[in-house]
Structure formats: structure tokens, C-alpha cells
Amino acid sequence: MTPLDEAGDVVIVLVACPDEETAGSIARALVEERLAACVSATADVRSVYRWRAGVEEARERLLVIKARADRLDALADRVVELHPYEVPELLALPVARGLGPYLDWLRADGS
Q: Which domain holds residue 36?
């Protein structure tokens, strides 16, 4: 069994985007600016949510962003700057453990 290393300095950030173009431009900006080591974009997901006075449904792209925790504030600022939603979904989840070589790569910004 492969041992997993502690990863308290790594986060996964989830961001829902309205379309493929927005998802791609945010993903590319975050990686190019070294705010994230890797961003994966899902195919369409169906979101159902309460907004203002009603229940809404939308097809969206979900970004799964792998980043260092010390870059989280700058990453969040950049997502808000680039995102077209009035209130974008942005959730940061701590990573407890992960494969050592992958964590090393991520900590080095994917270099």
C-alpha cells in the first residue's frame, strides 16, 4: 500500500462557471499566474439552487482547482475579478493527505 503524506498546506477550490469559455479563461489565468498548480474542468453539471425569491436551475462547468493554501486569498480575489456571476461559488476545502510526489509537484506550482 502506498503511504500518503500530510497535506495541510494544500487546498481544493470548487468554482462553478456558466460556460466552457468562462471556465477555460479562469483556469488558464490561475495556472499562468501561479495561483494554482492545476485546474480540472468538468463537463456540464446541473445546478439547482435558491437565488433571491426563487429556485433556479442552470447548466454549469465546475472547476476543481488544486492550489497551495498560502495562495488562497489571491486566488479568490482573481476568481471574483474574472467571474461574471454577481456572487460566484467559491469553496475551499482542505486536503488532509495525498500522494507525496503529487503534493511535491503541486507545492512547486506544477513545475
A: 4-107
